[in-house]
Design goal:
The structure is a homodimer of 147-residue chains. The first copy, chain A, is of the alpha+beta class and 147 residues long. Helices cover 37% and strands 12% of the residues of chain A. The first copy, chain A, has a two-stranded antiparallel sheet. The longest helix of chain A is centred in the middle third of the chain and has 14 residues, at 91-104. The two termini of chain A are 32 Å apart. The relative contact order of chain A is 0.09. Strand 4 (142-145) of chain A pairs antiparallel with strand 3 (114-117) of chain B.
């Protein structure tokens, strides 16, 4: 196995979060939390993950401030994993990934989960990169300034 | 180590792409390609990855249609890894991740790489999830319809 590398000293804002997110299960836990799941058993049922692996991933997300632990909303003795502001801020990341998967990993007409606006039931618009004036930008319209 | 799981039968468009992307190095290779890198040696220099690991990640991205192989633009005997339409479509995913990293993984004033519009030099706008009418949506404004 390759040595586990950390990106915590990187000056690239794409790299640093990968120490927290760079594992498929972690992104799916966040997806489930955005969809409203809060309890260990709910995540386990949704993901079919072994308890020890799910435990480790959740602990990592708590340690990194993506989840906050809270007493169960219904007064039962369970703890709930609630997305922090930092965790909720992953919504555009998860949605952009969702749309990429929708476009490139399904056959036309193949059944798939669909993100819709709650009120209207209409699919959300494509997530785009835009300039300050609203113009849609592609990779060639941008460049990275190194520090 | 946990058994490697595939999400290819999942009905969730967040899950399916993780078989291709669910590794931090892979996302950083795509980041570098969006930033203009094309050659094995360029990726290796940028990422500091062992050749065998970089080779395997690049082969995976070619096999999954994110990169296409092309003869070197300058006529030299090297092959270049060129983002396909599918690969370029990752720009909003990488940019949303970049902005999340920028917001949550750096101290205020800490030097970091910055994505700017090429012409104006101005930072790109925040990537947002929007309804068809342009309204910005949060997680609570949406829901997932299962197939």
């Amino acid at each position: 196995m390759p040595k586990r590398t950390t990106h915590e000293e990187s000056s690239c804002p794409v790299a640093r979060p990968l120490d927290v997110l760079g594992d498929g299960w972690t992104l799916l836990i966040v997806r489930d939390a955005i969809d409203g799941l809060r309890r260990f058993g709910q995540f386990q049922k949704s993901l079919g993950l072994a308890k020890n692996i799910l435990s480790a991933r959740l602990a990592n997300l708590v340690a990194n401030g993506v989840f906050e632990l809270a007493p169960a909303a219904d007064g039962s003795p369970y703890q709930e994993y609630v997305l922090s502001e930092k965790g909720r801020a992953l919504f555009p990341v998860i949605t952009a990934l969702r749309q990429w998967g929708d476009r490139w990993f399904f056959e036309e007409g193949e059944p798939r989960a669909l993100l819709v606006e709650r009120e209207s039931g209409a699919p959300v618009a494509a997530v785009e990169v835009r300039a300050a004036n609203g113009r849609v930008l592609g990779p060639d319209d941008t460049r990275v300034l190194l520090p």
